[in-house]
């Protein structure tokens, strides 16, 4: 299996030894490069996801989707992005200008922050702290503040209602989301992203195989709550377009709106990415204990495994979104506080018992 | 129906009406027609129905004073009178004593004069468009009589000081047009709804008074554009009945099939819009996809996809297309498996049941009192199908079921429409092979005059009873033409249905009521 840390160590030694740079300059250059990589990957993935959403949704609805700009409309999203970039940003009269302008940035920060934890390949996890998962959930919850501020500062009654709904929903669903991740942490024994992925090596090492019943429950609950966290449908109450026009981002134009749009799609990818990282082994290939088969699987690069799993989950989430009608706010909260929360608590207990007695597959 | 009005005196009017309602069971107020009776003064004609025997009567009452006309209100007897009396006040300036909310309904609050009065001056200089917003008062007036018989005004505030008021509409994706619902919220919970109408008011009734009969037909398709043919059926029906035109069977068959195609078309759109309002966009597209098949059939014969302009006085605009029989059979066969698909993708969904069941409940008594006909009324168990009880066309020759449910909630309203689509297909399949030979049009004189008298004729539109009242003085234009809109009772019942429910329920109930705004505003 190709270890990406070979490249990173070579580049580091290139800067320090060959070019003779001091530690400060070497790290600065590396940080800038990594930052550029994150933002580039973020933007490219957003474009891919938007295109995918339009095509997948079209397929579910017996339509073709965008077909005019380029073959199969592949340049449609790029054209849309260009349009959005050159649109004028104008603020609403009597809006709270400061909060109004920082809200989209807050949403973006939360999303880029969480995005930086993705395990792309062996040795290619960008932020790899020993409290990785914990820090990631903390950073991603900044997004709630952004949504709440956006709705509040827009000076629009629909937006305020939407902001309240968004805040209530996302804060509630973070409970189950965290509990599901903790269940996984109990099994792997580490919060570090690379550690969690490494713990899933070996035949049938993926967590949903290792942890069998409690892990599968945690995985399903995680997908449901993750869908709610990403504000996507059937949980897209905050931007329920038939009720609240566009919800908290009604009053944003140009890139202000663009940031919300970007963050929404990347949150979808982050949910899928975290689910595949924690429960489906991240970049880890599938191993079944037969040497030849495992060898062949190892030849497929880790990034293909990771993106493959993530996009498969993204597809499932899109399938759900384009099939179900929207829930009502009290039904959403009932689902979380009466069913998912107790279920994930119970699941955590089961997982602890399973781990304590060593009943997992290893 | 030629109206033989029971003429009541304004003084004992309230008592007599109470007797009619309570003792003779005329508990369904079909409509109130305001009219300028010339020398007699301003007055109203009330059309009432007994919901047990389906007998209809009409009551006429005239306000004595032409300068300052007033009549007793019947809002305490029929809730439908709430908006209907406001409409009469708006157009004729008749003040209703005891009505709790005597504001204008369709026109701006600063409009001067009452446009449907015959002495109203239509000089454009005196009726300039305002360049500023409507200065809506935040209070309303109630009129009462003091001991000496003088009118006394009482002011009521519309909103409390701490009310959080949100305007749902006039531009809002879920109101299906330009309806404005001024909603007082308590968090997510609705405390009161004030409907504001008139954003697409075109004064169809007023314009019709200066048009000859064939010209008035052009408006009908543009009222409720989703029951275009039924609206027109009602108008040509009333003129033909007044003139005593005997239609051939062929005309009746064609009209019946066209009406059912239109109903299928409308209900498919209803299904789509329900899905869209609840956020299920895929189900929405499925409905639109299948509606296309139905529209294509209508297009091939009438040339129109939305506005058909197909019926005319004495028959139809043209004979049916040679392929019509084949064309109708095709979507009938196509749509049946699709009903199963709708069931799978939307109706059977647990989220839909949660969103619809027990939401926006309307009791049978309220449905009758508000006059909510059509699917909304039938969902409460009130059998009000005009096709069954005041048959027209060839509906008496077809055996079809009148779908009724009992809970009166959004789910039942939805199910009534879903089942009615199957009945429409059944009616079309029964009739399509038996279209008799004959004339498609019975030649009329170039200038159509209707004998003196008052008539009322109604059809079952896609969302209720569409009725047309015609008062003729024997001229080539109507003296007074009044449509009974299908959506107005639905809007007036919104407040009752939605108090204490959530904003999201407003959308769900609005979707299940299926009102079309141009029909309400006229």
Explained architecture:
- The complex is a heterodimer of chains A (362) and B (522).
- Chain A is an all-alpha fold.
- Chain A is built from 15 helices and no strands.
- In chain A, helix 2 (23-60) crosses helix 12 and helix 10 packs antiparallel against helix 12.
- The radius of gyration of chain A is 21 Å and the shape is globular.
- The two termini of chain A are 21 Å apart.
- The mean pLDDT of chain A is 85.
- By secondary structure, chain B is an alpha+beta fold.
- Chain B is 38% helix and 18% strand.
- Chain B contains 16 helices and 16 strands.
- Chain B has helices at residues 13-22, 81-92, 204-208, 213-220, 228-243, 249-277, 281-302, 324-347, 350-356, 364-370, 374-378, 386-389, 410-432, 487-498, 503-513, 517-521; strands spanning 6-8, 28-36, 42-49, 56-62, 70-72, 95-97, 139-145, 151-157, 164-168, 180-186, 189-196, 311-312, 315-316, 453-461, 464-472, 480-484.
- In chain B, helix 6 packs antiparallel against helix 7, helix 6 (249-277) packs antiparallel against helix 15 and helix 13 packs parallel to helix 15 (503-513).
- The mean pLDDT of chain B is 86.
- Chains A and B meet through helix 7, helix 11 and helix 15 of A and helix 6, helix 7, helix 9 and helix 15 of B.
């Amino acid at each position: 299996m190709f270890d990406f840390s070979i490249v990173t160590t070579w580049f580091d030694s290139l800067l320090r030894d060959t070019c003779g740079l001091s530690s400060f300059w070497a790290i600065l250059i590396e940080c800038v490069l990594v930052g550029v990589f994150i933002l580039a990957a973020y933007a490219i993935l957003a474009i891919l996801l938007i295109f995918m959403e339009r095509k997948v949704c079209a397929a579910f609805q017996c339509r073709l989707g965008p077909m005019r700009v380029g073959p199969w409309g592949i340049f449609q999203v790029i054209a849309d992005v260009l349009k959005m970039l050159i649109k004028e940003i104008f603020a609403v009269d009597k809006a709270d200008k400061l909060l109004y302008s920082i809200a989209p940035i807050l949403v973006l920060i939360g999303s880029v922050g969480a995005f930086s934890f993705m395990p792309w390949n062996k040795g290619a996890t960008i932020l790899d702290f020993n409290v990785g998962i914990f820090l990631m959930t903390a950073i991603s919850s900044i997004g709630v503040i952004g949504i709440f501020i956006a709705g509040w500062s827009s000076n629009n009654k629909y937006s305020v209602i939407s902001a309240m709904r968004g805040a209530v929903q996302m804060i509630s669903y973070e409970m189950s989301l965290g509990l599901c991740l903790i269940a996984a942490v109990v099994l792997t024994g580490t919060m570090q992203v690379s550690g969690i992925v490494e713990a899933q090596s070996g035949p049938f090492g993926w967590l949903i195989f290792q942890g069998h019943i409690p892990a599968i429950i945690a995985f399903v609950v995680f997908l449901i709550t993750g869908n709610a966290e990403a504000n996507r449908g059937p949980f897209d109450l905050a931007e329920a377009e038939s009720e609240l026009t566009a919800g908290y981002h009604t009053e944003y134009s140009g890139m202000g709106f663009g940031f919300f749009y970007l963050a929404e799609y990347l949150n979808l990818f982050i949910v899928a990415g975290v689910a595949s990282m924690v429960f489906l082994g991240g970049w880890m290939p599938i191993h079944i204990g037969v040497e030849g088969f495992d060898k062949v699987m190892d030849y497929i690069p880790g990034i293909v495994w990771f993106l493959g799993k993530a996009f498969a989950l993204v597809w499932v989430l899109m399938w759900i979104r384009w099939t179900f009608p929207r829930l009502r706010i009290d039904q959403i909260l009932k689902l979380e506080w009466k069913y998912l929360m107790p279920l994930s608590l119970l699941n955590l207990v089961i997982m602890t018992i399973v781990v304590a007695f060593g009943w997992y597959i290893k | 129906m030629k109206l033989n009005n029971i003429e009541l005196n304004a003084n004992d009017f309230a008592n007599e009406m109470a007797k009619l309602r309570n003792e003779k069971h005329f508990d369904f107020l079909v409509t109130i027609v305001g009219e300028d009776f010339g020398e007699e003064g301003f007055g109203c004609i009330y059309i009432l129905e007994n919901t047990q025997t389906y007998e209809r009567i009409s009551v006429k009452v005239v306000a004595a004073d032409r300068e300052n006309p007033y009549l007793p209100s019947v809002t305490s007897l029929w809730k439908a009178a709430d908006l209907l009396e406001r409409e009469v006040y708006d157009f004729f300036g008749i003040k209703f004593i005891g009505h709790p909310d005597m504001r204008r309904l369709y026109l701006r609050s600063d409009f001067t004069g009452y446009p449907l009065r015959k002495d109203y001056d239509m000089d454009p200089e005196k009726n300039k468009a305002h360049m500023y917003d409507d200065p809506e008062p935040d209070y309303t007036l109630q009129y009462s009589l003091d001991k000496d018989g003088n009118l006394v005004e009482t002011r009521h505030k519309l909103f409390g000081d701490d009310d959080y008021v949100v305007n749902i509409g006039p531009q809002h994706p879920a109101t299906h047009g330009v309806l404005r619902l001024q909603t007082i919220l308590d968090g997510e919970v609705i405390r009161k709804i004030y409907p504001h109408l008139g954003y697409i008011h075109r004064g169809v009734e007023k314009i019709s008074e200066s048009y000859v009969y064939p010209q008035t037909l052009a408006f009908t398709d543009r009222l409720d554009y989703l029951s275009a043919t039924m609206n027109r059926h009602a108008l040509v029906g009333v003129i033909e009945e007044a003139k005593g035109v005997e239609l051939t069977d062929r005309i009746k068959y064609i009209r019946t099939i066209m009406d059912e195609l239109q109903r299928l078309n409308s209900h498919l759109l209803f299904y789509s819009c329900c899905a869209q309002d609840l956020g299920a966009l895929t189900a929405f597209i499925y409905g639109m996809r299948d509606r296309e098949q139905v529209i294509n059939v209508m297009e091939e014969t009438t040339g129109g996809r939305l506005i058909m302009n197909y019926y005319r006085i004495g028959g139809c605009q043209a004979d049916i297309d040679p392929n019509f029989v084949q064309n109708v059979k095709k979507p009938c066969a196509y749509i049946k498996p699709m009903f199963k698909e709708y069931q799978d993708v939307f109706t059977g969904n647990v989220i839909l049941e949660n969103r619809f069941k027990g939401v926006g409940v309307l009791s049978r008594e309220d449905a009758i009192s508000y006059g909510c006909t059509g699917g909304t009324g039938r969902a409460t168990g009130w059998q009000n199908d005009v096709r069954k009880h005041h048959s027209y066309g060839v509906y008496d020759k077809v055996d079809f079921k009148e779908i009724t449910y009992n809970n009166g909630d959004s789910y039942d309203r939805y199910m009534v429409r879903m089942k009615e689509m199957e009945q429409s297909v059944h009616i079309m399949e029964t009739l399509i092979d038996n279209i008799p030979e004959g004339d498609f049009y019975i030649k009329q004189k170039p200038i159509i005059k209707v004998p003196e008298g008052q008539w009322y004729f109604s059809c079952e539109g896609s969302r209720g009873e569409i009725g047309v009242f015609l008062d003729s003085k024997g001229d080539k234009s109507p003296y007074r033409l009044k449509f009974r809109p299908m959506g107005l009772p639905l809007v007036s019942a919104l407040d009752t249905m939605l108090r204490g429910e959530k904003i999201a329920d407003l959308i769900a109930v609005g979707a299940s009521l299926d009102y079309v705004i141009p029909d309400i505003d006229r």
